[in-house]
Every structure is written in structure tokens, then in C-alpha cells.
Amino acid sequence: MAVARSMRRTSPITVFLAALLAFGFLCFLLSPSSSAAAAAPVTDSSSQLRREDAAEHPLSPPTKPFLKSQAVREDGQKAPPPVMHYNLNELSSTSESIKKGERVLILTPLARFYQEFWDNVVKLSYPHEFISIGFIVPKTKDGDAAVTALEQAISETQSGPVDSRFASISILRQDFDPPIQSQDEKERHKMSNQKARRESMSRARNSLLFTTLGPSTSWVLWLDSDIVETPATLIQDLTAHNRPVIVPNCFQRYYNKDTKKMDVRPYDFNSWIDSSTAEELAGMMGPDEILLEGYAEMPTYRTLMAYMANTGAPRPSREIELDGVGGTALLVKADVHRDGAMFPAFPFYHLVETEGFAKMAKRLGYSVYGLPDYFVYHYNE
Known about the structure:
Layout: H1 12-30, H2 34-37, H3 45-53, E1 103-109, H4 115-122, E2 131-137, H5 141-158, E3 168-173, H6 185-188, H7 194-212, E4 217-223, E5 227-229, H8 234-239, E6 245-256, E7 261-266, E8 272-273, H9 276-283, E9 303-304, E10 320-321, E11 329-333, H10 334-338, H11 353-363, E12 368-378
Subcellular location: Golgi apparatus membrane
Organism: Aspergillus kawachii (White koji mold)
InterPro entries: Mannan_Polymerase_Subunit, Nucleotide-diphossugar_trans
């Protein structure tokens, strides 16, 4: 009588071979692709530098390029990320920034995307392998459009010539709604909108700073998204002064109807030397009130760097000491931020955002400087 198939004794050899086959199949599925490991060796010196300097685990700071690790343990599982050690005492921020390979983090709050802004950043002559960039974008319709355009521009640059590629780029989306939806210039600069707008800007700047500042960052360059023209040597020109905080003069190109030709005019009035009048005004204010600069309704009689420019015979290296700074283009030693200087989203000595930052930096013992004859240019709407 024939025995039913289900009752037949299974051979141990068959079981062993089936288990071995299943294990081999699982190893095949879990093993990393060999395409990256089999890639042709890099011969370009810049590419080699980037590859050798790149972080190799997901916990790497965003100020370094990240190459996915291919490390696999003997059991076929990926190795855990290593413990990283950083000695901040060896980190320098000097007047010889390029020679010493000092890393620069460019940070930009972005509400609208201007191609001229990105083209200008790409033209910066500071070695791009030492530059990381961070953006923070509001959750608005304009913000969505800005991210789409920004990602396209980034893709073209980062897939282009190696020397043009930046070490890393991060894009953050704000986790709060902006108080002013319109990005129209007149609406943005209404005096009645300034406190809410600038406190919101402070929150965005702080979120961007605290998320992207890595242990290898020497300098932070705050660069507004509507700065469309700077010298290509902007970073090395500013670091050459070796100041804790330094700001160039922000102007705007426009068509002068009186002279019938292109002309320039001051744009940013937040870089100033304090006055006794402003101090007296602050002394009479309530705890939640702030001083604003550049409004006829609140005359402070501060000395404005915007009006100290010598456009006829400029001396770009000329320095002055300031009490307040604007943020259109602002270079800060990373240690100033690490020591606690941030952008107050609350009245700090009746100042907020970049002006409050300058006050905070000075309270921490750092000096703040401006360059009246060194110009960057704002987009003209």
C-alpha cells in the first residue's frame, strides 16, 4: 500500500540544502549594492579631498558632505555609526581662512527664490568644498514655489563641475506660520508689521542656526535671499578683517528718473551707532515695545552706516565700530553663536532680530564692526 506524500520522512540533507538556499537569498537581499564600491577610483584632487573629508554615517553634522557608509558586519548587518570626537580647541577662525581650510556655513531665510541670488552664490570664489549652505522656507504658497525653484538650481549646481559643488546643502521648512503672508516689499516694511515680522524672522534664523551649525564650522555668513550682487571674494574679504561680527553696507541699484540713468541708494538702515536720543526713547518704553530704525514716526538720530558710505572714492577696507547690524549680509565667527549670541524673538533691551543679536554679542564681550565702503546689492522690486 502506498504511503501518502505528506507522511513520507523528509531527508535531513533536503532540509539543510533548503535552509542554506534561504540564508543565501536573504544575504543577497540585505547586502549593499556593489556599484558604489566598484566605482572608478577618483583621481581629481578636489574630488579626493571631498571624499576623504566626507562623513560616513547618518549622524554626521550637516556642515560636512555625507557619503553613505558601506560598512557591513560579518553577520551581514550594517555596522552601527561610530562615536565621533570633535576638539573645538583646534578649530580656527582667522584672517587666513582659505589657507587654513576654514569651513563657512552660509545661512539664508528664503521666502522667494531669485535666480540672481543663486547665481551670485555659485560665483563666490571661496573654495566650495569648504562651504555648506542652509535654507529655511516658510509654509506658504510662495514658499512651496521657492523650494521647487531652489531644488532645481541646486540640482544643476551639485551635478555640475566638481569645483562648483558645495560641501552640503540643507533645506528646512518652518514649523510655524509667518505672521505676514504677503512678500510685497511695501507690506513687509510697514511699521505696524515690524514687531511681529521681525520676531518671526528671529525664530526662523534661530531654527536654521541651531539645526545646521556643526562642530567643524568656523564662520557663519548670513545672506538674505534678495542679495543679488556681491564681490566674488565676499567671504575672504570679510574674514580677512578677523572680526567677531562684521557687516558690509547694503545698497540697491535703481533707475534714477532725474538723471535718466542707473544709480545706487542705501537700502539697509539696521547697521548703526547708538545715540542718546534712542537710549532715552528706550528708557520710556514698556517691556514689550521695541525700537525701530528708518521710520519717520520714531526718530532715533542714530548714526547710520548707510549714510557713511563714500561712493565717490570708496575704501572697502575702512572699518567702523557699530552697536546694531542688519542681516542682509552678516559674517559671524561661529564661536560667537556657540557662546550664546542668537537672534532674540523677544524685546532684548528693546531690540529684536539682527539688532538684538548685535546687542547680545556685545553683552557677551564681542565687538561689532561695519564696512561703510564695502557694498552688496539688494534686489530691486
